[in-house]
Prior knowledge:
The protein is of the alpha/beta class. The protein has a domain at 10-65. The protein is 20% helix and 14% strand. The protein contains 2 helices and 3 strands, in the order βαβαβ. The chain has a 3-stranded parallel sheet, with no helix packed on it. Helix 1 links the parallel strand 1 and strand 2. The longest helix has 10 residues, at 16-25.
Amino acid sequence: MTTSITHFVGFPDLGHRFHNAVRIFGPPAFLHRFWDQRARRDIADGDVIVFAEGDEHQPVRRFNGDDQFYAPDPKEPEVEL
């Protein structure tokens, strides 16, 4: 039996929209800054994909995004998910 995991795609920051998605779908296993080739490769059959905007039919970015964008800022207090 395989376990499905949750991917969040395209969230511009870890603000209200992100926290609302966490309340509904639970915390993500992966955060993808953009809908790009790497995000598509990371997703397996049965995984849950939550898009900030659009869906899987939107154009795939030509270049992979820097998912390090979501690394916590050491100056900011930690947010409990």
